[in-house]
What does this fold into?
Amino acid sequence: MRMVTRKDVAREAGVTETIVSYVVNGNRYVDKGKRIAVQRAIAKLGYQPSPMARALKGKGSNNILLIADDLLSEHFGQIISRMEEIAKDKRLFISLCSDREDDLFLTTVLSRSFDGIIIGSRSMKEPDIQKIIDSGIPLVLLEMRMFEGLTGVYGIINSGLFEGSAMAVRKLQERGRKRIVYIDSLSSDHSGINPKDFRYQGYLKGLEGSTLKPLLIQGASNDDELARLVEETYRKTPFDAAFCRTDAIACVALQRLKEMRVSVPSEVSVIGCNDSRLCKYVSPRLSSLRIRQDLIGDNAMGILEQLRSEGDALTEPIRIQLDTELIERESV
It folds into this structure.
């Protein structure tokens, strides 16, 4: 079958090829009516921009962008460190930013002509992700949540968070814990838990088959507020275990429980996620889900290279499945 070209899209939409280029690249203003017409034509014809064509036209930047939730996170620091080891041999540069959740941010990203984009965000909207896929820029998603409506060719890496979180909750039940609370990450807008988040979904899965009911702590915007919520929840519904979305969150919970003279782990068991260096230096030492950041970095860079070299020949996403490991220390 003949490959669909921008000329085909332009003819279908009743616009010029230049307008199609502006819409695909997202780097110029296009009248709303024309933009919609082009987007509909792209969807109807199944047009996929060529990453290699972008490079041949001098649009390569030798720059890879990582969009992350938490720029201070050791988790992303380890991923980007591994990516940097690979990038330096290929004379590529790695940039890091957070999702700013506005149209200008997306337009800016698309206009910079990155050679590849990696998204590790639980909040970035699917329509924005789809626009990046449609632009032809090689894209890799770190699958921290469920993605349900994406189409086209891209890479996706599942680190095993869903299965690992369920395993952690079951481990707590094996230790006889009956009231297991899920403590979510901080959210500046008090938005609380993303119901599609794999850690949360794994927590719920781990409770299946038991008589235990979900108990949640969410919506805190800073450490002090989170500590207050931990205390308020414990005094109202004394929990005997906590599964925390990150190790940093677990450390806040540990500290407040100690201040309340609640013994960990004899009265409350605590498990974090990411197996960061914090785990070895808090007291008691923190149990945590170990995520293979090294393999995430390796696979992310490998997928980007494959998308750049074989993008036109691919017809479906490149999927990688990894596993987590529960590292048990003194806190359980």
Summary: The chain has a mean pLDDT of 90.
